[in-house]
Every structure is written in C-alpha cells, then in structure tokens.
Design brief:
The chain has about 450 residues and is mostly helical. It has 14 helices and no strands. The longest helix has about 45 residues.
Length: about 450
Amino acid sequence: MTDKEQIGLSSADPEHASVSDSTEGSEVFKKTADGVSFRNVGWFKACILFVKVLFATGVLSLPSALLSLGAVGGAISVVAWGAFNTYAFVILGDFRMRRPHCHSIADMAEVIGGVVGKETTGLLFIIGYVLVTGSGIIGVSTALNALSHHAACTVWWSFLAMVVVIATASIRKLTHIGWLTYVGFASIYAAVLIVVIGVTTRDRPAAAPQTGPYELGYIAINNPGFAAGMVASSTIFVSSAGTSAFLPVISEMRNPKDYKKALYPCMVLVTASYLAFSLVVYRWCGQWVASPSLGSAGQTIKMVSYGVALIGLIVSATIYLHVGAKYLFVRILGKTRHLQANSVIHWGTWLACTIFLGVISFILAEAIPIFNYLIALVGSVCFAPLAISLPGLLWLHDHGHYLKGSLVQKVKYLLHVGMVLLGIFFLVGATYGVSIQIKAAYADGTIGSTFSCADNSNSS
C-alpha cells in the first residue's frame, strides 16, 4: 500500500477506518485565501447537486422502460437499482474518504489498476458524461421543438441548446452552479407533476385512437425478450447510476466527511419520485407513452410541461458537461499552480474543455437521436463498469482479508465478486440489446438519417 493509500486510515480494517483531520493537504482543491477557492459547497447544496445529477433526463425515459418490463417488474427494478446504486456510492465515498487525493473515479481506479486502470476508467467516465450531455441536448431541443411548433430544423435547436449548455457549464465553481440547481430541480419536478396530473385527467392516452375501442397495453408483468429487457433494465439502472459524478462534488465540499448527509436524502427522494412518476404515467398511458415522457399528456400539456422543464433540462446538461470538463481540467492542470490561479492558461484550458466536450456531445446526440436508446447506451457501455464492477473491485481491494475470515465475511466477499460479474454481464448484454434495437430503428425508419431535421426524440 502506498503512502497516499494510507492517508486517513486509523485501523487495519477499512470498515472501521476514520478520516484524520490532517488529510486536508491531500485534497485536490485546497482551502486558499488567494486564487480560486473551490471548496465552498455545504452538505445541503451538495444534496441538491446530487439530486439534479440524477433527477434529470433519466426520469423522462422510465415509463417507456416499464412498458417493456410491466408495472410490477418495472417497479421492483426501480427500487432495487435505487438501493443498489446507493450502496455502490457508499463504497466509492468511503474509499475516497480514506484517500482524499482522489478527485474522480479514475483516481480510484489508479489505486487498484495503475495507469491502465486510471486511463481506461477516465475514458469511460468522459464518454459517459459526453453521452448524458448529449441526452440533455436532445431534451432541450425537444422542448424547443414543442414550444415553437417545429418552427426550425431540429438540428438548429440542438445547436442552440449546445451553445447555451456550453456557456452555462463554463461557470468554474460548482457552488455557483449549485444555485442554478435549485431552480433546475424545481423546474423538472414541476413539469413531471404537470404530466402526472395531465395524464390522469384524460379519458384515454393522447397518442391512442381518440374514437372507438383501443388497447391500453398496461401489463403487470411482461416478458419482452432478452434485447428489449436488457435495454429497459439498463435504462432504469442508469437513471440513478450517475453517482460517479458525486465524487467531484465531494472534492468541492467544505467538509467532505458530510457526504452521506447529502447522499441518503438524495437517493430516497429520487427513488420515491421515480417510482411514483413512472407507475402513474404507465398506468394511464400504457403502450401509448411517449419518450421523453413529457409528451404523454397531449399537445397542450406537452407545451406547458416543456416550457416549465426547459430551465431544468438546460441545468441538467450543464451539470453533466461541467463534471466531465472538470475531470479533464484537473487532469491537465492538477499538478500545476494554474489549477487555482486566475491565469490565462487556467481560463484557456477550462474553456477549451467545456467547448470540446460540448461539441462532441452535440455530434453524438445527432448520431443517436432517439432519447431512450441513448440513455440505455450510456448505462450499458459506461455506467455498468463504472457504477457496478468498479465499486465491487474497490471493496475487494480493501477487504481482501475477508476471503480468509469468518463465514459471514466470506459471503460478503463473494457477493462483491458478484457485483463485478454483474457489471460485466450488463456491459455485454445491454450493449448487445441496445445495438440490436438501434439497428432495427434505422431499418424501419424510426430513426432518420443523422443530422436530420426530423424530431426523432419523441419516438418510443
């Protein structure tokens, strides 16, 4: 174990280790009176940031996932993945508390996998947050399309969304973006409630035939087949799996040890909201649910909900892009004085990171314009290894002695081996499922050509 790994350990058993107050010097961002002071985030603002990272574009794809799994299967999946992702981040947070030099999940991977582990994990992290930024751009362009009655080509709305997101993500400190998250969270939550109320006041779903008999398509337990089932499971998983973005937030907290105060209320609120929202919309819309789901209650409610949600959708994409850019920024300037100095190099590097990743997000959003497929692809390719396998590997690294311990300890060890294998299964299985469905969507015309003016984002 290196000297950095030993910082903060007060016991041979990591489960009973405490964080020493003397670890302040190991933090990536130092508390400073001159230069740029990043450490200004309190635990409550961190909680709001956590909520806004999760309760964003993911919630808009959940009713479509329940369409594949059925109400009971989908509800169980929402709760189970919420609990699982909470535990996975507890592992990440505890690992980071014992090694405060870790700014990102890539730094943690370096502890157990060296340079190869760090660079591989860092690449997955960047790809993941570029893709979710792309999903945010799709959400914003969909809102602008709905509000303008498609007054311009969808590509232009996406381009405008990219420009706005890059501009807001270029705010350097999370504590300043934190103020935007209050408005952003209220915006998305209010829009979701409007849709929930809207669908329950209709005689039949907006997309269903408005005269004559029709089939609602509400199913308690469904058997969608392997590909569709993996896509649905991946969509539900990724809706609360963005916890790797919590780590950079911890690095900007005034007291990083308070991270659990922020984590638990966040996950309870997000999981409960996901469950209630997805079940109500699926119950009233069935197979006629839209994706993104804000369009499920008819044109008028669609315009109202997107108008209310617009700020929240922008803030969501802003946070995703900011977190990804901050990772690159710290990697580039982390060992130089320019990290916290108001220099030309500091600003030039920071703006280059936000602009570069923002442009890539826009390109990918136009290449895979169907919203729920993009969300599922993020879950399978990026977050399966980042949020399932890697936390399991980190726990195994710190608890290797459990393999020779008591029966309970051996069982715990094997369960965490199972986490690693589960992540690999999702990486392979869900990516295969998404690929099959994207190929089919292009073949049957559900997805038009790339950079098309068609509004593909409303396809279910």
